[in-house]
Amino acid sequence: MAEYQHISHGFEPVFDERSRVLVLGSFPSVLSRAHSFYYGNPQNRFWRVMAACLGEEVPPNAAGAVSEEMSIEAKRRMLLRHGVALWDVIESCDIKGSSDASIKHVVPARIDRIAGVAQLEAVLCNGGTAGRLYRRHLEERVGLVAQVLPSTSPANASWSYERLQARWQEALLPYIGGAAVR
């Protein structure tokens, strides 16, 4: 059984001054921390869902790209082209492995880094844990009520890919313009 460890996030948020919608997860998984980028577990449906919602091809994973850096850069560019910022609610915490349920001693992300630069119109939380943590630690500072979406995690097996993609598309559509579902 995994033991508690105090872990810092370890990589930067994705955003620029054109970001209109902020997507927040809770905290990077073990695989994401190992790859130094968001949603590093190939079973997580985040990148497939986002690509479909944004009308783009799914960016290559590290195995399909020339390098892991190119894979990360392709994902970053895809989000920024459509005004999507990406970060996590937590800067550091005590956690067992990748278990959101084990999170304690939360240090929230320095959300001002994004809110002070981007013209945010919406916050979308990837799952209930991110939503609860956002309400508790960041909502007042951002000034936007978050929409909590179903988690793209493989642990959320009750949501099929198709249903998940449709729900995320509905939430993103007002902020991403004319992107089409592929």
From TrEMBL:
Keywords: Glycosidase, Hydrolase. Pfam families: UDG (PF03167). GO terms for molecular function: DNA-deoxyinosine glycosylase activity. InterPro entries: Hypoxan-DNA_Glyclase, Uracil-DNA_glycosylase-like, Uracil-DNA_glycosylase-like_sf. It comes from the Bacteria. Its EC number is 3.2.2.15. SMART domains: UDG (SM00986), UreE_C (SM00987). Residues 12-172 form the Uracil-DNA glycosylase-like domain. This is DNA-deoxyinosine glycosylase. It comes from Enorma phocaeensis. The lineage of its organism: Bacteria, Bacillati, Actinomycetota, Coriobacteriia, Coriobacteriales.
